Amino acid sequence: MGLTVVSGNGHTWRLTGQIGSGSEGFVYGVDDARPLVAKLVPDPPDPEAYRRRVAHLVRQRREPRTVRLLSGTPVRVAWPLVSVRTPDGTDAEPVDGYVMTDMRHAYQPFNHLLSTSARRAHLPRATWASGLRTALALARLLGELHAEGYVVGDLKPDNLWADESGRVAMADVDSWQFTDGRELFPGRMRTPGYTAPERIGAPAGTPPGTESDDFALAVLVHQLLMAGLNPFAGHPADGGDYLSYDDNVLHGRCRITDRTSVLLPRSVPPADLLPRRLTELFRTAFTKALRRPTAAEWAHALTAELAPGRLKVCAVNARHVHTVERPWCPWCDQAERGADSYPGHPREET
Ligand SMILES: [Zn+2]
Rounded to the nearest whole angstrom, what is the distance from the C-alpha of residue 33 to the centroid of ligand 1? Predict the structure, then answer.
């Protein structure tokens, strides 16, 4: 017999197979006429708290602030639609979770934008302009949910969806931080490479603020504009061992803020492909925690970079799009050093 889940009012769904897994749970297809999936979290640290968290999120879907976030098609947030649990069994505790929209009907995993091979296979028309548009959509969505009182807490590619036209969506809402009345449901997840320095080593349970999302946003924008490169990637230039992204974050090892702090392969995209204004925002985001640019500031700056006349297409390869601030093509420079993040298709190269 296949796995089933039951909602509070007795509706039963048959699960059609596991389609994903994350740090906390598993996502299954749902046998339903609508595009739905179910997330089950087998072993939350506090099962009762997890059930309450999901129940509150399901209720908040009707609140004006959440309705605003969920407006538009395709929907940008995989909000929990209904709480479910596996039926009581003799040999296992019931597992809690929720049913949500299947984002695969409109989006692809965000990670498809971050590697050359995945881009080529799944998003073949993506260029640097797609990176800019995706960064803008992400900054706007994050700014909106901050304005409505939500904090993502664990903002990272695995929780995001994207498409070729630059649309962005979020999932894993059950790990967000939010309030209901006077009750705070704290975010507690964090991911190396996307955690702000002030949260690295902070006691477990310290609630994140919007500024920690803004740090993760800056990392993601950098990845989108640098063909997937994490700004804190690289071996310490002082000869020490590479330990982790978090170690590089804590020691300020970052090509954008200190060119001499890390060693990177020659084939990474050149640092000077970034427009001056965005470079300044990255420097502030990564060095000045108290002045870290907000999602709204990123949205403003990214909008300006997409204005008419700000982008140039390379004469050699039509996939090479770059800012007009750079007189010659950064992607051709990169190709000369052995890697091309936006290779042309064979028929275009003739
Ligand atoms: Zn070029």
Answer: 46
Q: Which amino acid is at 82?
A: V
CATH 3.30.200.20 is right for the domain spanning 4-105 = yes
Q: Which string of b and e fits 117-152 if b means at least 16 CB within 10 Å?
A: ebbbebbeebbbbbbbbbbbbbbbbbbbbbebebbb
pLDDT in tens, 30-48: 999 999 999 999 999 999 9
Q: Return the number of other C-beta atoms located less than 10 Å from residue 105's C-beta.
A: 10
Q: How far is the CA of 227 from the centre of ligand 1 (A)?
A: 14
Q: Given its phi and psi angles, is residue 141 left (phi above 0), alpha (psi -120 to 50 degrees) or beta? A: alpha
Whole-angstrom distance between the N-terminal and C-terminal Cα of the chain?
56
* Ligand 1 centroid from CA 165, angstroms: 21
Q: Would you identify the CATH topology of the domain 108-348?
A: Transferase(Phosphotransferase); domain 1 (1.10.510)
Task: Count other Cβ atoms within 10 Å, centred on residue 103.
Answer: 22
Asked whether 286 and 346 are in contact (CB, 8 A), the reply is no
CB 179 within 8 A of CB 185: yes
pTM for the structure as a whole: 0.96
The CA-based dihedral angle spanning residues 84, 88, 89, 90, taken in that order and rounded to the nearest 10 degrees: 150
